[in-house]
C-alpha cells in the first residue's frame, strides 16, 4: 500500500505536538525532588502553591508547578498596574496639581476663593505640599479672603470601594485613593516617655486634628509592640478627635503609630491652614468641595515627580493607595474626569490584548492586590515579567523592585541568598497568602524569572516567606 506523503507528514507533526504537550504537562505536574521534599518538611500541600521558574527567553521552564491555577497574588498585582502604566504613560509622565483664583488678587490679598484642583498625584507628600505653598507665597499671595476649595472630581469617589479586609479602616494601608491626596492623608501619632509623663503629638501638625492624651504611665516591662496603646477616633464635620489611651511603661521607649484618621478634604485643609499661617499667610474662610470654573484664573501649576520614580515607591514599599491612584490615572487619561476603577482595569486589559498577553483568570479589583477576590496565575505573572524584561522600560521596572535582603518590602527576607542587586523581588502578603515575583541573576550570569504564589490552607503551619526563600536558594544551587 502506498503511503500518502501529506498524510504521513501530518501524522508525524501530530506525534511531535503530542510529545511537546506531554513534556509541558509533565513539567506542570512534577516538582523536582528537592522542592517536593522541602514542601513535605514544611507541612505544605503541593496543591496550595504555584511555582514558575524560567530563564528569560527560554521556551521551557525549569519548574512549572500548578502555574495555571488562579491564586490571590496579593501585592504582586502591583506589577501589572506599574508595568502597564510605564508602557502607556512613559517613565517621564508627570501629574500637574493646579491652583486657581476665584476672585481678584491685589497687594497680596485674594478677594475670593483659592481652588486646589487635584490631578491624582500619588506621591504628593508633605514636603512637596510645603513647596507648593512656598511657591504660592513667592508669587505674591499672602491673604485669602475666602475659602479653600478642593476640586477632586478627576476621580469618581462614589465608585471607589472603601471596604477593608481587616476592619481596620484607619490603618494607612487601607487609605482610599483620591484625586486630591496630600501625604496619603497619613498622620504619625508619636508617643514619647519623658521623666514621669508621656507626650503625645501628631505629625504633620494640622489645625483640624485634636489629640487627647489619656495615657497612664505604668512602671514595668514593655508588653507588646505598641505597649498597650489604643486609639479612639471621633469624626466631626470640620475636625477629628483622637483619644490616646492605655497604660504605658516607659521601657517601651518611643512608639509611632501611622494612621489615616481624617477625610481627604479635612486633612488637606488642616495641613494647609497650619503651614500657610506658619508662612505668614492667612485664610479667612473654611474648606469646601467644588470645581474649578472656566472663568477662574490659573495661578500655579505644580508638577509631580516622574512616573519612573513613582513606580519605585509603589513597588519597593508596596504602597497600596499609590497603586490605586495610578490605576485611576490610567482611567482618567483615557476617559476623562470622574474616572472609575473599572475603567482603569479596562485600559489595562486592552493593553494586555495589544501585547498578546493572555493573563488567564485575571481579576484586578483595585490594582493593588488589596482584595480577597484578586486573581492571577503564576504563568500569567511570569509572562508579564518576561514581556517587561525585554521592553524599553525594563531598566525602570527592575530598579523599582526591592533588592532582596537589602531594601523595601524584601529587606528582611532572602538574605545571603544572592549577591546584592542580583535578586529583585516584589513581595505580596495577606492573611494566608505569601507571594513573590521578580528577577534573579545566578552566578553563571543567567537571568531567571521567578514567581511563587502560596495560598496557605488553614490547616497548614505558618511558613511566612521561608518556603519561597528555600526555593530561590535551590535555584541558586543549580549549575
UniProtKB/TrEMBL annotation:
Keyword Hydrolase listed: yes
UniProt-listed InterPro entries: Beta-lactam/transpept-like (IPR012338), Peptidase_S13 (IPR000667)
Residue spans crossing the bilayer: none
GO process terms (BP): peptidoglycan metabolic process; proteolysis
Pfam assignment, any one: Peptidase_S13
MF terms in GO: serine-type carboxypeptidase activity
Keywords from the UniProt entry: Hydrolase
PANTHER family linked to this entry: D-ALANYL-D-ALANINE CARBOXYPEPTIDASE (PTHR30023), PENICILLIN-SENSITIVE CARBOXYPEPTIDASE A (PTHR30023:SF0)
Entry's family note: Belongs to the peptidase S13 family.
Protein name: D-alanyl-D-alanine carboxypeptidase/D-alanyl-D-alanine-endopeptidase
Amino acid at each position: 500500500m502506498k503511503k500518502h506523503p501529506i498524510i504521513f507528514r501530518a501524522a508525524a507533526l501530530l506525534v511531535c505536538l503530542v510529545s511537546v504537550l506531554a513534556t509541558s504537562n509533565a513539567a506542570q505536574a512534577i516538582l523536582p525532588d528537592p522542592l517536593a521534599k522541602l514542601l513535605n518538611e514544611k507541612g505544605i500541600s503541593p496543591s496550595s502553591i504555584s511555582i514558575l521558574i524560567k530563564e528569560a527567553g527560554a521556551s521551557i521552564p525549569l519548574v512549572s508547578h500548578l502555574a495555571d491555577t488562579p491564586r490571590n497574588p496579593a501585592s504582586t498585582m502591583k506589577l501589572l498596574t506599574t508595568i502597564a502604566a510605564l508602557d502607556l504613560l512613559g517613565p517621564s509622565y508627570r501629574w500637574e496639581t493646579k491652583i486657581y483664583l476665584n476672585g481678584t488678587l491685589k497687594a497680596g490679598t485674594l478677594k475670593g476663593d483659592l481652588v486646589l484642583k487635584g490631578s491624582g498625584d500619588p506621591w504628593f507628600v508633605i514636603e512637596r505640599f510645603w513647596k507648593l505653598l512656598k511657591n504660592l507665597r513667592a508669587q505674591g499671595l499672602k491673604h485669602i479672603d475666602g475659602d479653600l476649595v478642593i476640586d477632586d472630581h478627576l476621580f469618581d469617589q462614589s465608585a471607589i470601594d472603601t471596604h477593608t479586609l481587616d476592619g481596620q479602616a484607619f490603618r494607612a494601608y487601607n487609605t482610599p485613593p483620591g484625586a486630591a491626596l496630600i501625604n496619603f492623608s497619613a498622620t504619625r501619632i508619636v508617643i514619647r516617655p519623658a521623666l514621669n509623663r508621656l507626650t503625645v503629638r501628631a505629625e504633620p501638625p494640622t489645625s483640624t486634628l485634636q489629640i487627647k492624651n489619656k495615657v497612664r504611665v505604668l512602671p514595668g516591662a514593655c508588653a507588646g509592640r505598641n505597649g498597650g496603646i489604643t486609639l479612639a477616633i471621633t469624626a466631626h464635620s470640620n475636625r477629628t478627635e483622637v483619644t490616646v489611651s492605655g497604660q504605658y511603661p516607659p521601657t517601651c521607649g518611643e512608639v509611632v503609630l501611622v494612621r489615616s484618621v481624617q477625610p481627604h478634604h479635612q486633612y488637606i485643609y488642616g495641613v494647609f491652614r497650619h503651614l500657610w499661617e506658619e508662612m505668614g499667610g492667612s485664610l479667612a474662610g473654611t474648606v469646601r468641595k467644588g470645581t474649578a470654573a472656566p472663568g477662574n484664573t490659573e495661578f500655579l501649576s505644580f508638577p509631580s515627580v516622574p512616573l519612573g520614580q513613582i513606580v519605585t515607591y509603589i513597588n519597593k514599599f508596596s504602597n497600596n493607595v499609590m497603586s490605586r491612584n495610578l490605576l485611576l490615572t490610567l482611567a482618567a487619561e483615557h476617559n476623562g474626569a470622574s474616572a472609575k476603577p473599572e475603567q482603569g482595569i479596562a485600559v489595562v486589559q486592552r493593553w494586555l490584548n495589544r501585547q498578546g498577553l493572555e493573563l488567564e483568570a485575571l481579576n484586578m479589583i483595585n490594582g493593588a492586590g488589596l482584595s480577597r477576590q484578586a486573581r492571577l496565575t503564576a504563568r500569567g505573572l511570569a509572562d508579564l515579567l518576561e514581556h517587561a524584561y525585554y521592553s524599553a522600560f525594563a531598566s525602570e521596572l527592575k530598579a523599582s523592585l526591592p533588592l532582596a535582603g537589602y531594601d523595601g518590602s524584601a529587606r528582611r527576607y532572602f538574605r545571603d541568598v544572592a549577591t546584592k542587586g542580583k535578586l529583585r523581588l516584589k513581595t505580596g502578603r495577606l492573611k494566608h497568602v505569601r507571594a513573590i515575583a521578580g528577577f534573579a541573576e545566578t552566578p553563571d550570569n543567567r537571568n531567571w524569572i521567578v514567581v511563587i504564589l502560596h495560598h496557605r490552607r488553614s490547616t497548614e503551619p505558618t511558613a511566612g516567606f521561608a518556603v519561597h526563600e528555600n526555593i530561590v536558594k535551590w535555584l541558586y544551587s543549580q549549575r
